[in-house]
């Protein structure tokens, strides 16, 4: 059963910090938990029963006081992290903000388990040249803007779909075509792989090296009639 209040996090976290030699005080100048060990910089821990945006904002505010700020929340024994995320995604977010993350698991018959998932160390994500290049190529290869930003569960017009639509349009216009004819008409050197993969089930092989349009292809061609493409009549 989920905890009812963030105050339930305090005692397990206090005991955890005290075992590491910290002196712990609660509600110090609007900070949920302050822990100090010798001459080391103070540690601030902000508590919330579930991970959310207000907790992140609190943590960011506390970074004005010390570099050692942790966000603490319950980690349920079953199910995903809050908002159907993964805990490693939440860790990544905390790292990018320079915040630490502590979770507490509560059990029916044994003591709560406290775990530090990440330390409050500044984190700089490594750029992926491969991913950046893929985005740039997708952007440049598209002929127009046929999607609506923020869409989900909708069929998107990608470069792959545009190239498939080109092949389908020529098949609708001329009937079955060879891969050589389609390469010449579309200018797509990878048309053979596209037809063989047949991701959308639009194409069917009529004979070796020659493909025609399926009923699914005809239907989807109408559905994507808004995609601007003017085929050449010349073969």
UniProtKB/TrEMBL annotation:
Matches recorded under InterPro entries: DUF2161 (IPR018679)
Pfam family, one: DUF2161
Protein name: Uncharacterized protein
Species this protein is from: Paenibacillus psychroresistens
